[in-house]
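We modelled the chain as a single entity of 625 amino acids. Its sequence is:
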Amino acid sequence: MSWEPRYAERSLRVTQPELVAFWEAKLRALGFDDPTKLHPFAFRDLAEDLVKDRTLVAYQMGLGKTAMAIASILARGTKHALVVLPNKLMAEWTRELARLGVPAADWQIIERRADLSRYTCPAGHGEIPRFRRVEDTEGRLVDVERRCEQCDAVGTHVDALRRINLISFRTLWTIPKDSPHVGTPKRPAVLDQWKRTVKPERTGLKHSFAWELRRRCEYVIVDEAYALANPDSLQTRAVFMLKPRKRMLLTGTPVRGFPDNVIALLNWCLGGGSDLFPDFDATVEASRNRFLALFGTYVNKVRPDGSPSPRLVPKIRNPERFQAMMAPAMRRRVNLEPEVASVLKMPSFVIEPEQVPIDENIATLYAGFAADFATWYAEASEEAARDASVVPHLTLLSKMNFLSRLSACPQAIVPSYAGPSSKQQRILSLIADAHARGRKVILFTEHVESAEWYATHAKLAALNPVLVTGSVSLTRGKKSGTSDRERRLTRFRDGDAELIVATTACVAEGLNLPEASVVIFDSFPWVPSVQQQAWSRVLRPAQRYNPVEIRLVGAAGTIDDYIAAVCELKRLAIGEGIDHETVEIDADELPDPHLYARALVEESGIVGAAYGASAWLARLKRQAA
């Protein structure tokens, strides 16, 4: 789990050396002892993992999880393997398959039902659709299954699955376009007891790709497996429907926000009631309750009416017991391990936080909107108190994100504001300075409007930017075989583009961008692992500059201070359980959005320490020192 020699006596090299040696010999026969294909530490780890049918690989970003997964498919001799991944990582996987010499005929991207099964005419009339719509004797349209249009013969089934089949999360839970049941799964409306609104129920996967693929692939690999953290989401339910015999999860961030995020991963990969987790039930919800009873940390907060309100905070209780439980289940590697550092010369990086003094116009705007937020929270708290509840957490965060948008791009909130703000001016000057030094830059933002603003002004400054947001198409062209997003990233990698302006969610995962050596954040995500994943795009052995510059630019006295403190303290708390980091954090000191909101209520209209979280920031500075 860590590079420290913990739990070595439970290693499969000790308990089952013959099986480990067998898989090492098989990997050598396939050429994976070549360090250009598989790093030596990954070779050793994979030989142990192949002994097991189920494994969770939680290497840090950039250590070769994709190559490890492909090698496991080839070593097992799997007839049909399915890889479930975010659509934006398809290009990276196809490049890695080509690099490892996997023949193009052995893999495919599943996008339609014909990629799963095909039907051919026994009379030699070629491929026929599974369904075709014809008129019956009464003139009604009906679906005729597997009939040739020329001879009306019943088609012969041909399995279209290949050795390696790639499918996106979204495709997995949708219905094939060439199916008579076209569309997304039906989701009946039910009452959400927390938001007190009507939401779609996460059910109804019949006729989806997952339904068609259930039990057809003996080996399933899930990349960016943290996406399974929500057991009620469609993509999680679709993955659970597959029911393969062998399973592998890949993620650099097994715990993204709260410790119980790991439960759905472990439940699908290893299963409750197994030898590793005998105390856990086979269902996700029961496993989560058991997990929180053992490792959840609760803080006794007080509602506005004075009644107690226990809240779960992102800190692992009993970290030693958590580590002992996770060690045989999770394969963890970090960049600073001696065994890793001796092979991969990863660049160092310097994080430079900066609080730009807020200019007078923005201060006035921010104070006004902060006062509006405080008024809303006071009214919402009073309404919630009448029902003996609290303001819903997600609702509160969405309102707080409005203040973050105002800090990052005031033009998006107040179109009449001419700008640029002092924060925007500082970021543009950092980009220009990096350009003057011949360095390529990635600018990450949480807000689409901010990305578009910076892209426009970078063009005016002749900096040749590339804009990557959720609106940039991921659909691959029939002729080119590449998407608009891939072409834009190629311009940055190999062309004349010197700047990527991107929303964090679009570029934070799975990409290798060592061409950039300066990373700037103009706003911060609530989840620390998202920020870490984002800057890890440039921390690759191919990086030419050392150290890499990472700049966290916030506006002093705004919500930027608070979100930065939340991210850092969450990161420390999670690292205590996952990477054996030694930290001392009092659970009562973990930032609480409700406390921040109450500070705005108490000192509404004042831009200053009350907006920031000065006590938490001071503690961070002491810890860093």
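As a brief sanity check on the tokenised model: Residues 8-112+163-341 form a domain with the Rossmann fold fold (CATH 3.40.50.10810). Residues 360-386 form the longest helix (27 residues).
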